[in-house]
Design goal:
The complex is a heterodimer of chains A (about 280) and B (about 425). Chain A is mainly alpha-helical and about 280 residues long. Chain A has 2 domains: about 10-65, no CATH class; about 80-245, MetI-like fold. Chain A has 13 helices and no strands. Chain A has helices at about 10-35, 35-40, 50-55, 65-70, 75-105, 115-125, 130-145, 150-175, 180-185, 190-220, 220-225, 235-245, 250-280. The two termini of chain A are about 20 Å apart. Chain B folds into 3 domains: about 5-60, no CATH class; about 60-165, no CATH class; about 190-415, MetI-like fold (Orthogonal Bundle). Chain B contains 19 helices and 2 strands. Chain B is flat and about 100 Å long. Classes of the chains: A mainly alpha (about 280), B mainly alpha (about 425). At the A-B interface, helix 1, helix 5, helix 6, helix 7 and helix 8 of A face helix 1, helix 10, helix 11, helix 12 and helix 14 of B.
């Protein structure tokens, strides 16, 4: 963004200050994430850059914390990762099904009380997690689902659906309903119309909502803290315990893996968003 | 000709108006049926349990159910003088059953909450009542512990008679009901909850402010630079957004530790000496810094989506009409971004006010918020009704802001990247 030649000095200075400030904010946003990478390869047990690391001495770096993460003696991470994936996958599937159906209903122009219902469906995203956690815990304890996988999955469906509802309604807002009418007039039944016409068009929205639901479940700690027992510990629970008790480099190794996972998810989500905008003919 | 015959009929002979109504109704039902599964699911697993928190927060049936005979006998007692023999006998009979069923501990705890020193008196009574003789229970109970001669303890029992109580709500505001059922405040040095509420508001407010100050320029930058750069920079905003909250908090813990990187840096540039490293974690500073960074994307995204729609020609027009860049900015650009500011600020404020994880990990004692207190009562003190009461008070505040957000922005306009 070049300044025009006639810009006065004071605005010129102001402009460079503005760019500098923006640079600082971007640094503030992203840099903290990247201190984790090098430190997770630390050969020592300290969470600072050792002198060897500053000299880039190869001996100062090691994979021992990654080794510890996978083969460590007590090794809670294997079980935690398995549980996290199982819970997140089922929670995502549940959120996608319930959320997409609801979004289809909400985008219909005949939907009564649209505003109120939408606000209700989104509320798990807005209500503080601690309150959701308490309420869901009381419910699950009453029906005997506390400390079970099913209980946690159901809780994560509650937390994940708002994202699916939001992304799918957003995709449907540019949706041309005459296409589905055309399909019906050509003799397709509603189910086929949905599977062959509507779904392929809203799929990017569905998947990106699903990604949000997956990440929400995969990263959720507050509700699981109330619901989990010994058998259903998850990665966030293990990290939470680790961060509260002792910050060990093994946690940084896990954190690095999680950052890589989130980069992958981010790239997927971005590609999907762009595809969706292309499909809906929105050009920026 | 009557107007009846004027109506347009469909091929089935039904008036078009009616036929349309039927079709509309069918569509309405169809749309509602699509939403119904999720609505029902949320109602059962989420909304009704939140309502259940309310009945739990005012529920006080525990003592009522444990001392049924006593409360029946106490109905007519005015509480001025020591109760009659009848009440003492009823209390003895109730208490005997509790001792036999080994549920007496709960009563002791509950009554001790009402009046300090009750527990030891009741424990003594539990031992001595085994040797009680029939008749004259008043004398026997009073001789078991001298506190039973004090009418205040009997008033404390009577105060717990109603099956519902709003005392938990008073407690959350650092108030309580005294002996004469008047609302009084606790002593000044014990008003911890009020401090917590105020601190929660204060931290939420300043985090929102910091986020706004930081997000506005970068959202503006993102919206005005060419797209190939803005896409890259947008990823810088979205990456923290997608990264695990715990990972981000962990990175702040590494940076802010007393032996951490930031302090190393300060010592290295000579801002502080090695001995006087500032404490930046386990206090308010830690909460502020980490929460601002974590909530920043929630401010940037709504601002960006509004700024993207503002045509740059508007600023040019303003300038060409003689406005200086500053005037043009404040008179033209800034007012147009107000919807984005509203959306971002409300969202960040709502999220900040109920934050739990980050304050718990980096906040220490002085950086804890009301959510942490709720969690403490859920997990450690096990006073679930108190936790429910505080949770509902917090929820009321959040829902009020949510309502405002819905009015101003509309929930369907929440942007997710």
């Amino acid at each position: 963004m070049a300044l025009p030649k006639y810009t006065e000095t004071q605005y010129r200075i102001w402009h460079y200050f503005y760019l500098f400030f923006c640079g600082c904010v971007f640094f503030f946003l992203v840099a903290p994430l990247f201190v984790i990478f090098p430190l997770s390869f630390n050969a020592e047990e300290f969470l600072v850059f050792t002198d060897g690391m500053k000299r880039l001495d190869p001996d100062a770096f090691s994979l021992r914390w990654y080794h510890d993460m996978i083969y460590g003696t007590k090794n809670p991470w294997g079980l935690a990762a398995k549980n996290s994936f199982i819970i997140a996958v089922f929670a995502t599937i549940g959120s996608i099904i319930l959320g997409t159906l609801a979004a289809l209903g909400l985008s219909s122009r005949h939907m009564p009380y649209k505003g109120l219902i939408m606000a209700t469906l989104i509320s798990p995203m807005i209500v503080p997690l601690i309150i959701s956690g308490v309420a869901i815990f009381f419910f699950m304890a009453k029906v005997g689902l506390a400390a079970t996988h099913l209980g946690i999955i159901l809780a994560h469906i509650v937390l994940g659906t708002p994202f699916v509802v939001i992304t799918v309604t957003a995709t449907l807002s540019g949706f041309d309903h005459s296409i589905t009418r055309a399909a019906s007039s050509l003799g397709s039944n509603p189910f086929n119309t949905f599977m062959k016409v509507t779904l392929p068009l809203i799929l990017p929205g569905v998947i990106s909502g699903g990604l949000f639901a997956f990440v929400t479940s995969f990263d959720e700690v507050v509700v699981v803290l109330f619901l989990s027992g010994l058998d259903n510990t998850t990665i966030p629970i293990q990290m939470w315990t680790g961060l509260r008790e002792q910050l060990s480099p093994t946690i940084l190794a896990v954190a690095t893996c999680l950052i890589i996972l989130s980069i992958l998810i981010l790239v997927t989500a971005e590609l999907l968003r762009r595809r969706s905008e292309r499909l809906r003919g929105i050009n920026r | 000709m009557s107007s009846e015959n004027n109506k347009i009929l469909t091929t089935d002979g039904i008036p078009l108006e009616e036929s349309l109504k039927v079709a509309e109704k069918k569509n309405k039902i169809k749309a509602f049926l699509l939403v119904a599964p999720l609505l029902l699911f949320l109602l059962i697993t989420y909304i009704i349990p939140i309502g259940g928190m309310f009945s739990r927060s005012i529920d006080d049936k525990l003592t009522t159910n444990m001392l049924p005979k006593t409360y029946k006998a106490m109905e007519k007692w005015d509480g001025k003088e020591l109760p009659s023999e009848e009440i003492f006998e009823a209390f003895y009979l109730d208490y005997k059953i509790l001792v036999k069923n080994k549920t007496v501990g709960k009563l002791q705890t509950q009554l001790n909450l009402e009046k300090n020193g009750f527990k030891s008196a009741l424990k003594k009574l539990a031992r001595k009542q085994k040797k009680f003789k029939v008749g004259n229970y008043k004398e026997q109970i009073m001789s078991s512990h001298k506190r039973f001669e004090n009418v205040e303890y009997w008033r404390a029992i009577k105060r717990r008679a109603p099956p519902i109580t709003y005392s938990k709500y008073l407690k959350a505001m650092d108030m309580y009901l005294d002996e004469d059922n008047k609302i009084v405040q606790v002593e000044e040095d014990r008003r911890m909850h009020r401090i917590l509420w105020l601190r929660t508001l204060e931290i939420a407010f300043f985090v929102t402010l910091f986020c706004f100050v930081m997000a506005y320029p970068i959202a503006h930058l993102l919206a005005t630079i060419p797209m190939k750069y803005s896409n890259l920079l947008l990823i810088c905003v979205l990456l923290p957004f997608w990264t695990s909250l715990l990972v981000r908090t962990a990175s702040w813990m590494i940076l802010l530790q007393q032996q951490g990187l930031l302090n190393d840096f300060f010592v290295w540039i000579g801002l502080f000496t090695n001995e006087n490293r500032p404490q930046m974690m386990y206090n308010k500073t830690g909460t502020y810094v980490a929460m601002t960074q974590i909530l920043l994307p929630f401010m940037v995204l709504p601002l960006y989506s509004v700024m993207k729609t503002i045509s740059p020609s508007l600023m040019r027009a303003g300038k060409s009409l003689g406005a200086t860049p500053t005037v043009a900015f404040f008179k033209v650009y800034f007012p147009l971004t107000i919807p984005g500011i509203g959306a971002g600020c409300l969202l960040v404020f709502i999220l900040a006010i109920g934050y739990y994880i980050t304050p718990e990990l980096v906040g220490g004692a002085s950086g804890k918020l009301i959510s942490n207190q709720i969690a403490y009562h859920m997990k450690s003190s096990l006073d679930w009704s108190f936790a429910s009461a505080m949770g509902l008070m917090l929820l009321t505040g959040v829902l009020a802001i949510y309502w405002l957000y819905n009015k101003l922005v509309g929930v369907d306009n929440i942007k997710l990247g």
